[in-house]
């Protein structure tokens, strides 16, 4: 698939033939917060929330309703902020900064109790995905790549399929990409191919 992607990438002048894989010296990275048109429909917002929730909570640790509401509000307010101020680069780092500074103050002003949403615990668990953390590269890609209009994308999962951190993130990105294409690209034939699943 790498060769096919390279050929398509070359023939389309770099517009298509996007290939994602994980290498130790060039780890896979995304920016799930980026959209070219700053359009954040319900699916996009839900995808961001699901991604953050997956990183924040373990499988055997369901979130409380108050935590879900707080996360939903944080994502919505962050999106409002980046839409108003386009100098803020939409990525996980700026979301983390927003929660640490702005959202913490909003929660305090609303008298949200720590037992309802522990912002320090939230930030602590997500710190590995922030800036120079162990996975700081994962959700902060510098490539402003909106996959919506890309016609040929390959996600190579062999290396990450057994990784408990990377595999869920990549899977959520794949699903969000396909759902986004299904909803927004009306009248265009789409196909998802899963090999050796």
Helix share bin: 40-55%
Domain module count:
1
Number of strands: 2
Read across the widest sheet, the strand sequence of neighbours is: 1-2
Mean pLDDT: 90
With helices defined by DSSP (H or I, 4 residues minimum), what is the helix count? Answer: 6
- Order of H and E elements: HEHHHHEH
Net shape: globular
Strand content is under 5%
Radius of gyration: 18 Å
Computed structural class: mainly alpha
Q: What is the end-to-end distance?
A: 16 Å
The low-confidence runs, each spanning 5 or more residues with pLDDT under 50, are: none
Walk me through the structure.
The chain is mostly helical and 197 residues long. The protein has one domain. Helix content is 46%, strand content 3%. The protein has six helices and two strands; from the N terminus they run αβααααβα. The chain has helices at 2-11, 42-56, 65-84, 92-109, 119-126, 166-184, and strands at 18-20, 153-155. It has a two-stranded parallel sheet. Helix 2 crosses helix 3 (65-84). The radius of gyration is 18 Å and the shape is globular. The two termini are 16 Å apart. The model has no long low-confidence stretch (mean pLDDT 90).
List the helices and strands and how they pair.
Elements: H1 2-11, E1 18-20, H2 42-56, H3 65-84, H4 92-109, H5 119-126, E2 153-155, H6 166-184
Parallel strand pairs: 1-2
Helix pairs in contact: 2-3, 2-6, 3-4, 4-5
């Amino acid at each position: 698939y790498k060769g096919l992607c390279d050929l398509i990438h070359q023939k389309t002048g770099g517009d298509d033939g996007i290939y994602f894989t994980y290498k130790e010296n060039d780890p896979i990275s995304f920016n799930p917060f980026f959209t070219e048109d700053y359009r954040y429909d319900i699916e996009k917002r839900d995808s961001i929330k699901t991604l953050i929730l997956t990183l924040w909570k373990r499988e055997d640790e369901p979130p409380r309703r108050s935590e879900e509401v707080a996360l939903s509000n944080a994502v919505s307010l962050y999106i409002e902020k980046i839409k108003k101020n386009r100098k803020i680069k939409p990525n996980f780092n700026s979301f983390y900064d927003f929660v640490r500074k702005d959202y913490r103050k909003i929660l305090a002003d609303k008298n949200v109790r720590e037992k309802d949403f522990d912002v320090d615990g939230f930030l602590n668990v997500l710190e590995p995905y922030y800036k120079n953390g162990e996975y700081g590269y994962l959700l902060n890609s510098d490539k402003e790549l909106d996959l919506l209009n890309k016609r040929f994308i390959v996600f190579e999962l062999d290396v990450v399929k057994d990784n408990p951190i990377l595999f869920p993130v990549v899977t959520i990105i794949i699903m969000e990409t396909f759902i986004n294409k299904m909803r927004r690209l009306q009248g265009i034939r789409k196909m998802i191919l899963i090999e050796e699943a």
